[in-house]
Design brief:
8 helices, seven-stranded parallel beta sheet, about 250 residues, NAD(P)-bd_dom_sf, SDR_fam, SDR family oxidoreductase, alpha/beta
Length: about 250
């Protein structure tokens, strides 16, 4: 029996929705009347994302697990009957310089930042095409357009995601699906804590980032979420293959 609820607003799937940019994105879409499947590894942060937002449905899943892309897309279709927007936001950062690389350090970054978005996008294609207004927004990084000594693998995965964005935009245009990306710069998120940085280390990183950002501050997750929502909006129907910097001028500077 089809248990999907009838929806008026768009249906959006956001990965990495438990904290930071993903949480802000899920809430921004929901505040605008969308129905959101918020995907993340941990139930508790997802519940926090959904708090006070009845349009958000948490779905705990590891996007890198075998069969996860198909299960995630099925969850969205079971809940809402369709899928209009996919936001590939989930990502992890490593801290391995050349000379200290290990397979166990490399694989998680490629699995989460590159392989999982590719497979999830593939699983979502039939639903996005059936929508008639399908849109994909990938979350890259401004670091992908600069050197990042000591952390080149993370930048490499995100640079590859930008190439996929442009390639998919051309490949999927005949199917009516638009593909764009945002490239955030320094943003106030828990990513430092997730990397295991101490408060002192995080303070040094923050100081360096601000010094190299022309606007003189870090961005907020809500500012990145705004850009994601705009790229997915029907009003952006002639925009595809774009990578939009949201970095306070860091790359231009």
């Amino acid at each position: 029996m089809n248990t999907a609820q009838r929806t008026q607003g768009p249906v959006v799937l956001v990965t990495g929705a438990g904290t930071g940019i993903g949480r802000a994105t899920a809430r921004a879409f929901a505040a605008d009347g969308a129905y959101v499947l918020a995907v993340g590894r941990r139930e508790e942060p997802l519940a926090g994302t959904a708090a006070d937002f009845p349009g958000i449905r948490p779905y705990a899943a590891d996007i890198t697990a075998d069969g996860a892309p198909e299960r995630i897309v099925s969850a969205a279709l079971d809940a809402y009957g369709r899928l209009d927007v996919l936001v590939n936001n989930a990502g992890i950062v490593g801290d391995q310089a050349l000379g200290s690389l290990t397979p166990d350090g490399i694989r998680p970054q490629f699995d989460t930042n590159l392989f999982a978005p590719a497979l999830l996008t593939q699983a979502a294609l039939p639903a996005l095409e059936a929508s008639g207004r399908g849109a994909i927004v990938n979350v890259s990084t401004s670091v992908g357009q600069r050197a990042w000594p000591g952390n080149s693998l993370y930048a490499a995965t995100k640079t590859a995601l930008e190439l996929l964005t442009r390639s998919w935009a051309v490949e999927l245009a005949p199917r009516g699906i638009r593909v764009n990306a945002v490239a955030p710069g320094a943003v106030e998120t828990p990513i430092g804590a997730h990397r295991g940085l101490s408060e002192e280390e995080e303070a040094r990183v923050r100081e360096w980032q601000i010094a190299h950002t022309p606007l003189g501050r870090r961005g907020t997750p809500e500012e990145v979420a705004w850009a994601i929502r705009q790229l997915a909006a029907p009003e952006a129907s002639f925009v595809t293959g774009a990578v939009l910097p949201v970095d306070g001028g860091a790359v231009a500077g």
